[in-house]
Automatic annotation (TrEMBL):
Segments crossing the lipid bilayer: 7-27, 47-63, 75-94, 132-155, 161-179, 200-221, 227-245, 257-280, 292-317, 329-347, 391-413, 433-460
Gene Ontology terms for molecular function: transmembrane transporter activity
Residue span, Major facilitator superfamily (MFS) profile domain: 9-464
Name assigned to this protein: Transporter, major facilitator family protein
Gene Ontology CC: one annotated term: plasma membrane
Pfam families, per database record: MFS_1 (PF07690)
Organism: Lentilactobacillus hilgardii (strain ATCC 8290 / DSM 20176 / CCUG 30140 / JCM 1155 / KCTC 3500 / NBRC 15886 / NCIMB 8040 / NRRL B-1843 / 9)
Length: 466
C-alpha cells in the first residue's frame, strides 16, 4: 500500500475513533440543558450518558471476535454508518425514549469501530511504524476522552445541545467515503461466523452487573449490602465466563492472550491512567466553576490545556517508541504524571490560576507520551490483533467508568470526612470542604499512577532478563 494512502486511512480511522470516544464524555456537560429541554429529572437525563458507555462495553469483545472472522474493515465501515445514523437520530430527538433508542444505535456503531480500529492500523502499517501510527491514533482517542467537557462547553456557548450530536454527521460521512475509496477491498467471507453464545451471555452479565455496582454505588455507598451482593454476582459471572472460555473450541476470548505479561500489565496500566484522566473530567470543572467562580467558557478553555498538549505529545511518544519500545516510553511518561498530581493535591484558591494550567498541560504531556496502544498491540500475537484491539478499547472504557465512580465517591467521602457527616452535594456554605475532598481524591489518583509504575517496572525487568 502506498504511504500516502496509509496516512489517509489513519486519519479516517482516527477521526471516527475521536468521535466515538468523545461522545462518551461530551454529553455530561449538556445533561442540565437536556434535562430542562426534555422536561425530565436530572438522574433520568444521566441515562443518556450511561446507556452509551454500558452498551459499548457489552459489545466490544463480540465485534472484536466477529471482525477476526469476517474482516475488520467490513465491521469498521458498517459501524461508521450506524454511528452517523445514531448521531443524526440523537440530534433530532425530542423526548427521552427516542434519544435513548438513538444512543443505543450510536453505541452499536461506536463499538464496531472501537473494536477494529487498532487492528486495521497494525494491518496497514509496517511493524517499524506501528508506534508512530498508533501514537497518532492515540492522540485522537485520548483527546476524545479528555476534551469532552471543554469542547462541549464551547459548543453549548453558541448552540443548543442537539449540535453536540449533529457535528458528528458530516465528519462521519467524510471519514466513511475516505475509507471506502482507500481501504483495501474486504475479502469474501466463506462459511458462517462462529459465535460463542454462552461466553457472550456470561460476559454481558458480568459487564452489566459491574456497571450497576459503579453507578448505584455512588448513590447509596459501596458498603451497602446490595452493592456488595452485586460485586459478588460480578465475580461469579467472571468465574463462570473463565470456565466456559477454557472449554470452548471457538471462545469469545482466547485466554492464552493474557499469558503475555506485557499485554496483561499493559491493559491494567492503561486502565489506571484512564481512571486518573477521569478525575480531571469530574473534579476539575467543579473546582473551576463552583470554587473559583469562573465561567463555563473560561473553565472550558483552561481544561483544553490537556488535549492541546496531548495532540503533540502522543505522536511524538509513538515515534520514539518505534526505536526504544513502547514500554520504556510509557514507563518514563508515568513519572511525568507525578508532578501534576502533586500540584492538584496541594493547590488552593489562593494559588495563581497559572499553576492549574501548568498542571493540566503536564498531565496532557504525560497522557500523550503514555503509549498504551502500541504497548498492548505490540504484545499481542498477529492472530490476536482483532481481539487485542477490542480488549484495549474495553480497558479504556472500563477505566473511564471506574474513574468516574472513584472520583465521585472519593470526592464526597473526603468532603464527608471534613464535614463530620455524610455529604453528597457541593458544600455551598463551606467551599473549603470541597478543596479538602479534591485533595483527598487526587491523593488516591497519585496512588493509581504509582501502581502503574510498579506494573510496567515489572514488565521491563522481565524483558531485560529474557
Amino acid at each position: 500500500m502506498q504511504r500516502q494512502n496509509q496516512w489517509v486511512l489513519l486519519m479516517s480511522t482516527s477521526i471516527v475513533s475521536f468521535m466515538s470516544t468523545i461522545d462518551a464524555s461530551i454529553v455530561n456537560i449538556a445533561v442540565p440543558k437536556m434535562s430542562r429541554d426534555l422536561q425530565i429529572p436530572n438522574n433520568q437525563a444521566e441515562w443518556v450518558v450511561s446507556v452509551y458507555l454500558v452498551l459499548i462495553c457489552v459489545l466490544l469483545i463480540f465485534f472484536g471476535k466477529l471482525s477476526d472472522q469476517v474482516g475488520r474493515i467490513r465491521i469498521f465501515q458498517i459501524g461508521t454508518i450506524i454511528f452517523v445514523l445514531g448521531s443524526l437520530a440523537c440530534g433530532l430527538s425530542v423526548n427521552l425514549p427516542t434519544i435513548l433508542a438513538s444512543r443505543v444505535l450510536q453505541a452499536l456503531g461506536a463499538s464496531m469501530t472501537m473494536s477494529t480500529n487498532f487492528g486495521i492500523i497494525t494491518d496497514i502499517f509496517p511493524l517499524s511504524r506501528h508506534g508512530l501510527a498508533l501514537g497518532v491514533n492515540s492522540s485522537f482517542v485520548q483527546v476524545g476522552n479528555i476534551a469532552g467537557p471543554g469542547i462541549g462547553g464551547l459548543i453549548l456557548s453558541f448552540a443548543n445541545w442537539h449540535y453536540i450530536f449533529f457535528v458528528n454527521v458530516p465528519i462521519g460521512i467524510i471519514a466513511f467515503f475516505l475509507g471506502h475509496h482507500f481501504f483495501p477491498r474486504p475479502k469474501p467471507v466463506h462459511g458462517h461466523p462462529k459465535i460463542d453464545v454462552p461466553g457472550f451471555l456470561t460476559y454481558a452479565g458480568m459487564i452489566l452487573s459491574f456497571f450497576v455496582v459503579a453507578f448505584f454505588g455512588q448513590m447509596i455507598g459501596f458498603g451497602h449490602w446490595k452493592i456488595i451482593g452485586l460485586m459478588g454476582l460480578t465475580v461469579i459471572f467472571l468465574v463462570i465466563f473463565i470456565l466456559i472460555e477454557r472449554h470452548q473450541k471457538e471462545p469469545l476470548i482466547n485466554l492464552s492472550i493474557f499469558h503475555n505479561l506485557g499485554f496483561s500489565f499493559g491493559i491494567l496500566s492503561a486502565m489506571l491512567v484512564y481512571m486518573c484522566g477521569y478525575f480531571n473530567n469530574v473534579i476539575m470543572p467543579f473546582y473551576l466553576q463552583d470554587r473559583l467562580l469562573l465561567s463555563s467558557g473560561i473553565a472550558g478553555l483552561i481544561l483544553m490545556a490537556v488535549p492541546i498538549v496531548n495532540i503533540v505529545s502522543a505522536p511524538t511518544g509513538g515515534a520514539i517508541s518505534d526505536y526504544i519500545g513502547a514500554e520504556k516510553v510509557s514507563f518514563f511518561a508515568l513519572f511525568i504524571f507525578i508532578v501534576p498530581e502533586i500540584i492538584f493535591i496541594l493547590v488552593t484558591p489562593q494559588w495563581s490560576i497559572l499553576w492549574l494550567v501548568v498542571g493540566l498541560a503536564l498531565f496532557g504531556r504525560a497522557n500523550g507520551a503514555f503509549q498504551n496502544n502500541p504497548m498492548i498491540m505490540g504484545n499481542a500475537a498477529p492472530e490476536f490483533q482483532g481481539i487485542a484491539g477490542s480488549i484495549a478499547a474495553l480497558g479504556r472504557n472500563l477505566g473511564m467508568s471506574m474513574g468516574l465512580a472513584l472520583a465521585t465517591s472519593l470526592l464526597y467521602h473526603g468532603i464527608s470526612l471534613k464535614a463530620g457527616q455524610r455529604m453528597t452535594t457541593y458544600p455551598d456554605m463551606h467551599p473549603n470542604w470541597f478543596v479538602f475532598g479534591m485533595h483527598y481524591a487526587y491523593a488516591f489518583s497519585l496512588g493509581l499512577i504509582l501502581t502503574a509504575i510498579i506494573l510496567l517496572g515489572i514488565v521491563l525487568r522481565r524483558k531485560q532478563r529474557t
